[in-house]
Automatic annotation (TrEMBL):
Mandelate racemase/muconate lactonizing enzyme C-terminal domain residues: 141-228
Protein name: Enolase C-terminal domain-like protein
Native source organism of the sequence: Sphaerisporangium corydalis
Any Pfam family: MR_MLE_C
Top-rank taxon: Bacteria
Family: Belongs to the mandelate racemase/muconate lactonizing enzyme family.
InterPro entries cross-referenced by the UniProt entry: Enolase-like_C_sf, Enolase-like_N, Enolase_C-like, Mandel_Rmase/mucon_lact_enz_CS, Mandelate_racemase_C, Mandelate_racemase_N_dom
Keyword Cytoplasm among record annotations: no
Amino acid sequence: MDLGSGGIELSVRREALRLVETVRSSRGEIDSVDTCMISIAHDGVVAYGEGTPTGYDGVTVDDVVGAVEAHGAALIGRDLRDPERVLDRIERWDAPAGARMALDGAVHDWIGKAARRPTWKLLGMPRALGPTVYTIGIAVPDEAANAVRNAPAVGAFKVKVGGPDDIEALEAIRKVTALPVRIDANEAWDLDTARALTPRLRRLGIQLIEQPFPTTAVDDYHRYREVPDRLPVFLDEGCTDAASVLAARAYADGVVVKLCKAGGIRGARRVMEAGRQAGLEVMLSCMCESELAISQAAQLAPLADHIDLDGHLYLSEPPFHGLGLEDGRIILGEAPGLGVAPTR
């Protein structure tokens, strides 16, 4: 849908991103995801943004698309002569975080393109990021090991887990790679599972675990801190914005920051800064997203301790291109703006 606001044209569409293979986690299986793609045209410049629904909190792509269609043009206003003010309005907007992410991304893309410079240069960030991961879904041991063998040349692996049976897949993975390995339970564990598996996970050199217990099981997080030689715990579903970081510091070692939770580059940067102030490590992560959304997140990668930006590596027909991958590191595009362009 095309929407006009004075001298600005806003286009909003829903797009299905198909994966090269089915990815399994404790939440189920996915072979495609839906995302919100937008473009804004102003003063001869066309800029793009992507906004992703988080899903696990009940937000759908229809919610994201509907919010942008209803209010996006009014939020941007009639021109972008003062983009910082526009970004302020977007950040304060009471809407799904994915909708804020899409508009925030498009404005950051426009800022760079209007200046004829890469946005990362305007933000004072480097072009090459730290090593990123590649995620391995829940699988039997042989499948898991083959997935690692066939993975892109990344700097670490993240493995989805759901229960005690996954330890055999982790053992198979460790036999075929010496790279760092992290695990992500997506709230599937209980405290007894964590206690029983921790010694074996430590022997395998597992680096950390994301969201082992349900977000509501705060007592389990506190009690796990008492387990000898426990794994560092990073909160994903349990930490969504800067305010939730304050609670996280009492029972976690780090936070997982995603633009689709924080509402874009502006919001994610605030969460990362709050994590630093709270003494927590910061992981910059993503959903299954195109190179457009990954490029939005990558603008902040130098502020993170761990980089988990691999969502675009699973897509069979990428709608955007422009990012590189060298020696396990994402390389940002040199083109003006976010550095990516539509594939078709």
